[in-house]
Design goal:
412 residues, alpha/beta, Rossmann fold, 2 domains, seven-stranded parallel sheet, six-stranded parallel sheet, elongated
């Protein structure tokens, strides 16, 4: 692949996997032109710049659920398609790859209109509207999780997983190196294998790191509501704080910037200043290695990372997620025994629901260890590599006159 347009936008759940693919393409071919095409009004431009990618902005916004503003957004989509066509004529890419979201709809459709090979990647167990529409015209559809109910044509689907950052891959390889038969994660005390991040054992920055690292130490709970945090999740943990601390659970809590001061003050008032509270965790691989259990939302990127880290989880899906995709994601992990699912409405009404879910795992180390094994078994840490392989295969088939469809379904 020498000239590729990658297009997506809206949320980090779409953008970060797209950036991982761009990194893999440039690793294989340092001279490749990789153009990131996204919306003008979101995070895309800044994140593309930080990744060293050229960026083309489209005047697009989401159309669904915007009421009267949806009409203006629809007109913006038409302008976005026209702009994407202009960019394609100018840059002459070999293919266009979309990762969902409204920007991907404009970019991939424009690529299809120009007769280029096109592909989409779906991160969630239930696709959004953009990918559901694009799935009808894209040459190939790459999946993070199995998708049933005939949403996509199985003949064009390939299950590759959701691309994750290099540090998560390193953690996964560290776990695998220990051998699954011996248990990749000790309960409790996090990963006690040599760490790829510190040059020695996995270490915590607190003064009690050595004591906590013991195999029979306290359970370590990592709370994270995504990069922006989740107020409902923060409130749920604070409401459950007494029983969690009484059970000896050690907490590390990512709050999001907007809620950081309030949550930190609440811990202080509860005489729990020893809890590590952070607005944002920069070194997530180290945080995953530290933890025994995660409490988080059910976004596709978070789930790809916690499974690569072999981390069991209590999942609280964001109820307003588009097409309720987070609940579908959570059900997938719950069904195979890698996670428990708790509904936000339930623990907002009765905090004991969340408390009970967490304590039920902390008190059952065998169950927690089994969940960790099942979580690790779901991992697809080399998704970026496999996705790039699939795209190269698609290009070869198109050049040979084949439409690039797979011989049989790989989606189930």
């Amino acid at each position: 692949m020498d000239r590729v347009i990658i297009t997506t936008g809206g949320t980090g759940g779409h953008i970060f996997p797209a950036l991982s693919l761009a990194e893999e393409i440039r690793r294989r071919n340092p001279g490749a032109m990789v153009l990131f095409m996204g919306g003008q009004y979101g995070l895309e431009a800044d994140l593309a710049a930080k990744a060293g990618l050229d960026f083309a902005g489209l005047p697009v916004r989401g159309v669904m659920g915007r009421g009267f503003k949806g009409a203006a957004a629809a007109l913006g989509m038409l302008r976005g398609i026209a702009e994407a066509l202009r960019v394609i004529r100018k840059t002459k890419p070999e293919m266009v790859v979309g990762f969902g979201g409204y920007a991907a709809f404009a970019g991939v459709l424009a690529g299809r209109m120009r007769g280029l090979p096109t592909a989409i990647h779906e991160q969630n167990a239930f696709p959004g509207m953009s990918n559901r529409l694009l799935g009808r015209v894209a040459d190939r559809i790459f999946l993070s999780m199995p998708i049933r109910d005939s949403v996509f044509d199985p003949a064009r689907c390939v299950l590759v997983g959701n691309p994750v950052r290099a540090g998560i891959v390193a953690l996964h390889e560290s776990l695998r190196a220990r051998g699954e038969a011996d248990g990749a994660r000790s309960c409790f005390g996090g990963v006690d294998a040599p760490s790829p991040f510190t040059g020695g054992g996995v270490q915590d920055d607190s003064a009690d790191a050595a004591k906590d690292a013991a195999a029979d130490g306290p359970c370590r709970l990592l709370v994270m509501g995504g990069s922006q945090g989740a107020k409902a999740l923060n409130d749920g943990v604070l409401a459950s704080l007494g029983p969690l601390l009484e059970a000896g659970i050690v907490i590390r809590h990512q709050t999001g910037q907007a809620d950081y001061e309030r949550v930190r003050a609440a811990y202080r008032e509860a005489m729990a200043e020893h809890v590590r509270v952070e607005a944002f965790i920069n070194d997530m691989p180290k945080a995953y290695a530290w933890a025994d259990l995660a409490l988080c939302r059910a976004g596709a990127s978070s789930l790809a990372e916690i499974t690569a880290a072999g981390l069991p989880a209590v999942l609280a899906p964001f109820p307003q997620a588009a097409q309720d995709h987070q609940r579908h994601n959570a059900r997938f992990l719950e069904k195979v025994g890698a996670a428990l699912r708790v509904e936000q409405a339930d623990f907002k009404r009765e905090p004991a629901v969340l408390t009970k879910a967490l304590l039920s795992l902390v008190k059952d180390r065998e169950r927690l260890a089994a969940m960790a094994e099942k979580s690790l078994a779901l991992a697809k840490p080399y998704a970026a590599r496999d996705l790039a392989d699939g795209l190269e295969d698609l290009l070869e088939k198109r050049r040979a006159g084949d439409p690039g469809r797979t011989e049989k379904s790989h989606a189930k």
